[in-house]
Structures are given as structure tokens and as C-alpha cells.
Design goal:
By secondary structure, the chain is mostly helical. Helices cover 65% and strands 3% of the residues.
């Protein structure tokens, strides 16, 4: 029977089933405690007598032998008679306790604290090790001289375990998790400079620079005023580093620098793997914020061109297809570059050897994404083919990439919000199962748009919250641009006062500055204001405005607001069909509104035909950015005016 002795708290023993073994009174428990401290060495009976009694009885030796006999019966109850004990053994002039290496919780604890392990394994081990403490070590023998040194050693080891656990959390980027334990640690043990250092560092890494400096100054006050000593060099250096915001304080920066240095040293400059590694960096850079997105976009074509120069179709396909950055907006940020990327993908596709289905699907998905807003048959065919291959290969990440292309090509006509909602729902489920965070965010944003178009704002609100939670947890700042605009649109759709909605739009517009998404930003602010005015039955704004790509659809209404009816009529005759994207219905509703006002029967006919499939949706709400109210309102006005 295996026996486990516990000394990290009151002295206890458990059998192999976890049941407590009764050790009788204090002196019975003192015997194994004293022998455990000896770490398997023999303790003479005479020393045991002196340790167990301040004033030993005349038959102290006999009493100890009685205790030992009783302990042997409960520790090894199945030992046959006249068989020598194997746990509490007799050797020479005394006794020794010989459990296995894991037979005493303190021994196991010490190994866990002093072991060298990767941070994640160390954190798990220390959590378990600290969880084994049930109170002060050798709790009932606190006053015994023979236990004093060991109790102090274990107490120090426990404090070191708390600090090593904090170090592991910091190494894993879990600074916020480290703060509460460290706060309690320094409150209980204010003389431990390492505790103060770790607490200040954890606070700094959670963005609380002021609190970090306050902690260091509190430590200085305690040490100087109560101990009469200055803080050690580690604390002084940390305070200086925090004041100048030294790069090395950031664990991620330190790891990045070391990895980059090693990569540069070990991977040859001309190695083709550098191109693929570069695309991986650009892909991650693109989701970090406006500057990162612009930089990634600027360097992506250079990476593709470098791959094509090498004449390796498979390498080129990997370089193009590895840039699977989720996209939610249906107007390209750089149409010229998008066309170049799509053309490069077509060239790679044509040169790709047979059987490279994963690479082929990635190239097709790239074509579908980069051809957003073009409405070409080829782009729609590429999206369908990429999805088919991804499903056949049962590759979750590839399928997520392909579904993004399917979403971008799901604007064949008006009224397809329900179809896009299905794509978003599959993306959310697929991504949650396979830890594809970027695509899970994309799925929620797609569903936010689709449920908004279907006037299901309860569900849309939930998807906005889910997207924000993921963005905060995984540092995706661009997500907030879309959720802020959604909430402004939500106010508009709820019929709130124009002043309140316009204030929300101004706040949302501020987020566009530096977002690195010109395809989204161009003309959006005046367009949102125009849609709000049309919804409320007010004339269009007539002041200077940069309408961007939406100028053709705004011009008739602006001319009407200026009293220039003939100019407005001509502008309406020149209005093209809107691009088939997220603002398709909104721009057709602006055309319908102008057509009714100008009694242009041909424009009314075209608008009615285009908008009829979206009769049950909110105009523009599918963009997640703006709305003109129900499409049915515009269809009704068209029908009444044209005598339908």
C-alpha cells in the first residue's frame, strides 16, 4: 500500500485510496514528522526521546518503541507477521522513514518549485504545488526546535513558488492574472523585493504605468523607513526602465527581437522560405490596426512579384494564398492593386501542377476576394470552386477563407441578406470549433450586417458584442470601427432624434481617421448624413462634401435641395446602376427617392425592378453602417407615383 505523508499543514498520512490514516496523538505524529525532516537518514532513539519531551520520562525509549509499533500497524496494515517493515525501518541505533520520492508532499513540492520547465508547464505545476498547502508546514510543531529550520525553509520555498508562478504568468502574457496574487503576496511579506518588482512589472504590462510606479515608491518607503535600507539594484533599475518605457519590459517585444535575430542569423538571405515567412508577418500585420493594414497592403505586391521572379509556380501560389486576411467591406481599398493580385493569382493558377488542390483553392479564394465589387462571372465562379474544394478536403481554415470569398460574391441582386447570414453563421461555428479567431470575428460582423438588414436588431446587437469581446481579447482594433458605425446606424433605424444619431455618427466617423481602409472611408460620412436626411424627409445637405465613389447617386438629391431641378433631372438620367455590394439597396433607394421627386418614370421602373427582391429588408442596414428605413417604403412610393 502506497502511503503519502503530508507536512504542508498539520502532519497527516493518507493511504493509496486517499483515506486519512489515523496517527493517534501528537507524539505519535511527531515521530514520522521528525523522521521526514531527516530525509531518510537514521535518527537515533535517544535523539527522538530528547526531541519528543522537554523532560523525558524514565522509560522514554520504551515509549518511542511503542509509538513506532503502533505507527507500523496503521502504515502497513497488510504486512505479514514477522516480516520486516519497509516503510518505518529499524537501522542500527534508531529509526528511518523511507517513503518513495513522491511519498512526502513537501519533497514533491520542492521538486516542482526548483524544476526548470517551459513557462506553461511550470505554471501548471506550481498551481498544483501551491494548492497542496493546507496551512503552515508542520503546523502543530511550530514551537519545536527540531522543526524550526525545516519550517522556515519550506516557508521560504513557498514564497519563491508564488514568485515563480508570477514569472511564468508574465512570460505567457498573463500579466493581469498575476496582479491579485502578487498584491496579496507583498501585503503579507512586504520585505520581499522580488515580490514588489514582479507586481510593478505586471501592472506595467497591463497598461497601468502609474500604478506600477506607485508600487515601487511604496516599496521604497517601506524599506527606507522601516528597515533603513535603500531598494536593491533590481527595483531601482525597473523604476528607471518604466519611466523611460524601455522596450525590454514588454515580454512580447523581447521574444520578437530574439526570434528575429535568430531567424536572420540562421536562414539564408536568398532562401525562398523568407518570402513565405514575410507573407505570414504581413497577414498578422494587416489585423493590428490602420498603420499595419496599410503597410501590409503596400508590401504584399512586392512579395508576389519577388516570388514570380523566381519562376516557381507553387511558391508563388503559396505566397499569394497565404495572405488569408478576412475582409468584410465590399469595396476594395486599392482597386488597382487588387486587380494586380487577382491577375497574379490567375497566372499562378494556370502554371500550377495538377494535384495541388489546396493551393488551387487558395488562389481561387484570392480571386474571389480581390474581385469584390466587380460583379464578374469569373469572380463568382472562383468563389464557388474554392468552396467546393475546401469542403472536399475537409480543411477548416481553407473553408473559412473560401467562405469569405463566397460572402464577397453574394451580391447578385438585392435582398440576399438571409443568404449572407447563413455564410456568417457557418463561419462563426467553424471558427469557434477550430480556433480561427479572425474568421470568427468576420462571421459575427457578417451576421451583424445581415440581421440588421432583416431588422433583427436583438441578434445583431449580440453579434456586435461578440465581435467586440473577441477584438479586445485578441487585439483587433479595426473591429471597433465597424461596431461603432453599427451602433450609430442602430440608433437611426430605431427612429431616434436626428441630433442624437448625428452625434453617434460623428463619434463613429472619428474612428475612420487612420484606420487604413480608404475603400470604407471614402465618401461614407456625407453618405450616412444624406441617408439620415432622406429617411426623415429632409432635403439633402448642400454644403461642400467629398462624396467619394457615391457622388453619382448623391448629385440628383443635392441639386434638388439647391433648387436646380433641371440639373437634378440630368444627373438622375446619368446615374449608373449601383455596384453589387453592401450598399446596393441603399443607393437604389436614393435613386428611387430622386426618381419619385423628379417624376422620372424610366428611373422609377429600373429602381422598382432592382429593389423588389428586398421588399422585406431595411435599405442599407445590410452594410452595418447606415440605413434609409424599410425598402418597402420606397417600393410603395414608386408604385403609387408610377400608377403600378
Amino acid at each position: 500500500m502506497d502511503v503519502l505523508f503530508g507536512v504542508l499543514g498539520p502532519v497527516t498520512a493518507w493511504d493509496g485510496s486517499g483515506n486519512v490514516i489515523p496517527l493517534k496523538g501528537p507524539r505519535h505524529r511527531a515521530v514520522p514528522a521528525r523522521l521526514i525532516i531527516a530525509r531518510g537518514r537514521v535518527v537515533p532513539v535517544s535523539l527522538l526521546v530528547d526531541d519528543l519531551w522537554m523532560d523525558p520520562p524514565s522509560d522514554g525509549v520504551g515509549a518511542v518503541r511503542t509509538f513506532v509499533a503502533a505507527l507500523r500497524r496503521v502504515l502497513e496494515p497488510d504486512r505479514p507477521p514477522r516480516t520486516p517493515p519497509r516503510l518505518l525501518v529499524t537501522e542500527g541505533p534508531g529509526y528511518a522513514l523511507r517513503p518513495g520520492p513522491d511519498g512526502v508532499d513537501a519533497w514533491w513540492f520542492e521538486r516542482a518549485v526548483t524544476a526548470t520547465r517551459p513557462a506553461a508547464e511550470l505554471l501548471t505545476a506550481l498551481d498544483e504545488a501551491l494548492g497542496r498547502w493546507r496551512g503552515p508546514a508542520y503546523a502543530e510543531f511550530a514551537g519545536e526546535p527540531w522543526a524550526r529550520a525545516e519550517r522556515a525553509r519550506l516557508a521560504e520555498l513557498r514564497l519563491r513558488a508564488v514568485e515563480r508562478r508570477a514569472e511564468a504568468r508574465l512570460a505567457l502574457g498573463l500579466a493581469a492574472d498575476a496582479v491579485p496574487d502578487l498584491d496579496a503576496h507583498v501585503a503579507e511579506h512586504p520585505w520581499r523585493e522580488e515580490g514588489w518588482r514582479l507586481l510593478a512589472l505586471a501592472l506595467y504590462r497591463t497598461g497601468r504605468q502609474g500604478d506600477a510606479l506607485a508600487v515601487l515608491r511604496r516599496a521604497r518607503t517601506l524599506l527606507v523607513e522601516q528597515l533603513g535600507v535603500d531598494p536593491g539594484p533590481e527595483l531601482r533599475r525597473l523604476e528607471e526602465d518604466i519611466l523611460r518605457q524601455a522596450d525590454h519590459l514588454d515580454a512580447a517585444s523581447r521574444v520578437w527581437a530574439q526570434a528575429a535575430e535568430t531567424y536572420d542569423r540562421t536562414v539564408a538571405a536568398e532562401a525562398r522560405s523568407r518570402l513565405e515567412s514575410t507573407v505570414g508577418i504581413l497577414r498578422n500585420l494587416a489585423v493590428t490596426g490602420g498603420g499595419g493594414l496599410e503597410a501590409a497592403r503596400g508590401q504584399r505586391m512586392a512579395a508576389i512579384a519577388a516570388a514570380e521572379e523566381l519562376g516557381d509556380a507553387e511558391l508563388t501560389a503559396r505566397v499569394i494564398g497565404a495572405y488569408d486576411v478576412p475582409a468584410i467591406w465590399t469595396r476594395s481599398d486599392d482597386p488597382h492593386q487588387a486587380a494586380q493580385v487577382a491577375a497574379a493569382a490567375e497566372r499562378a493558377l494556370a502554371a500550377l501542377p495538377p494535384g495541388r488542390e489546396t493551393a488551387r483553392a487558395r488562389l481561387l479564394a484570392t480571386i474571389a476576394l480581390e474581385s469584390r465589387g466587380t460583379g464578374t462571372k469569373r469572380a463568382r465562379q472562383a468563389a464557388r470552386e474554392a468552396e467546393r474544394i475546401a469542403r472536399e478536403l475537409d480543411d477548416p481554415r481553407l473553408l473559412a477563407f473560401a467562405l469569405n470569398g463566397v460572402f464577397m460574391q453574394s451580391f447578385d441582386r438585392a435582398g440576399l441578406a438571409a443568404r449572407r447570414d447563413e455564410v456568417g453563421a457557418e463561419l462563426v461555428g467553424l471558427s469557434a470549433r477550430h480556433d480561427l479567431v479572425n474568421y470568427e470575428v468576420l462571421g459575427h460582423l457578417i451576421r451583424l450586417q445581415a440581421r440588421g438588414a432583416l431588422a433583427d436588431f436583438g441578434a445583431a446587437d449580440g453579434h456586435a458584442r461578440a465581435a467586440d469581446r473577441l477584438a479586445e481579447r485578441h487585439e483587433r482594433p479595426l473591429v471597433g470601427v465597424f461596431t461603432a458605425w453599427y451602433r450609430a446606424m442602430r440608433l437611426a433605424a430605431s427612429g431616434r432624434a436626428a441630433a442624437e444619431v448625428e452625434a453617434a455618427y460623428r463619434d463613429a466617423a472619428a474612428r475612420l481617421d487612420g484606420c487604413g481602409m480608404p475603400g470604407l472611408e471614402a465618401g461614407l460620412v456625407p453618405l450616412a448624413s444624406l441617408c439620415l436626411r432622406v429617411r426623415d424627409g429632409r432635403p439633402a445637405q448642400t454644403g461642400p462634401a467629398d462624396w467619394g465613389p457615391y457622388e453619382p447617386w448623391a448629385r440628383p438629391l443635392v441639386s434638388l435641395a439647391r433648387g436646380r431641378r433641371a440639373e437634378a433631372a440630368k444627373a438622375l438620367r446619368d446615374v449608373p446602376d449601383p455596384p453589387r455590394d453592401l450598399l446596393f439597396e441603399a443607393l437604389w433607394c436614393l435613386t428611387a427617392h430622386a426618381a419619385v421627386a423628379l417624376d422620372d418614370r424610366e428611373a422609377m421602373r429600373r429602381a422598382h425592378g432592382a429593389l423588389a427582391p428586398a421588399a422585406g429588408e431595411l435599405a442599407g442596414a445590410g452594410s452595418g453602417l447606415l440605413t434609409l428605413g424599410p425598402v418597402s417604403r420606397y417600393l410603395r412610393a414608386l408604385a403609387e407615383r408610377s400608377g403600378r
